[in-house]
Amino acid sequence: MLKYSRQRESIKKYLSETTEHPTADTVYLHVKNEFPNISLGTVYRNLNLLTDLGEIIKIPSPDGGDRFDGNIKPHNHFFCNCCGKIYDMNMDVSDLNQINRSVSDSFDGIIESSTTIFMGKCGNCIRKSQEVSKCS
C-alpha cells in the first residue's frame, strides 16, 4: 500500500483544479507556495507516480516538455503551435470510440484507449495575428 503524502495530494489537487496543462516546473512553482522545502525532484517523482497510478495524465508536448492533466476522462488535446498552450478537446465519447474501432479494424491487436494531439493555431493567436495585420 502506498504511503499518504501531503505533497502528492497537493500536486493532484492543483492539477484537478486547473485546465492549463502545466509543465512539471509550473507544478513545482505552485506547490512550492504550500511546501517551501519541496524539491523539483520530489515533484517529478510524484508526477510520474500519479501518472503510473492513472490518477493524472502525462501529455508529451510537441514543444519538448511533458505537460500534466488532472482530467483522466477520455479526451483529446489541441496544441497551439503559436503560443504553446494545450487545450482539452471536448469531443463526444462516441466519436472517440468510433476512432478506436476504426483503427482496430486495421490493426492486429486490441485498442484500449487513444490520445490524439491536434495541432494548429488557437483562436486567441488567430485574433492577435489579425489585429497585427490590420495595424500594418
Determine the fraction of residues in helical runs and give it as a percent range: 40-55%
SSE order, as H and E?
HHHEEEEHEH
Mean model confidence by pLDDT: 90
Record the strand order, biggest sheet.
Answer: 4-3-5
Shape: flat
Number of helices: 5
Q: Return Rg in Å.
A: 18 Å
Taking the sheet with the most strands, its summary is:
3 strands, mixed
Q: Would you count the extended β strands for me?
A: 5
Q: Termini separation (Å)?
A: 62 Å
Beta fraction: 15-25%
Oligomer: single chain
Could you list the spans in which at least 5 consecutive residues all have pLDDT below 50? none
Strand-pairing-aware structural class: alpha+beta
Description:
- By secondary structure, the chain is of the alpha+beta class.
- The protein is built from 5 helices and 5 strands; from the N terminus they run αααββββαβα.
- The chain has helices spanning 6-17, 24-34, 40-52, 93-105, 123-135, and strands spanning 57-60, 66-69, 76-80, 86-89, 117-120.
- The chain has a 3-stranded mixed β-sheet with strand order 4-3-5, with no helix packed on it. A two-stranded antiparallel ribbon has the order 1-2.
- A hairpin with a 5-residue loop joins strand 1 and strand 2 (66-69).
- Helix 1 packs across helix 2 (24-34), helix 1 packs across helix 3 and helix 2 (24-34) packs across helix 3.
- It is flat and about 45 Å long.
- The relative contact order is 0.13.
- The mean pLDDT is 90.
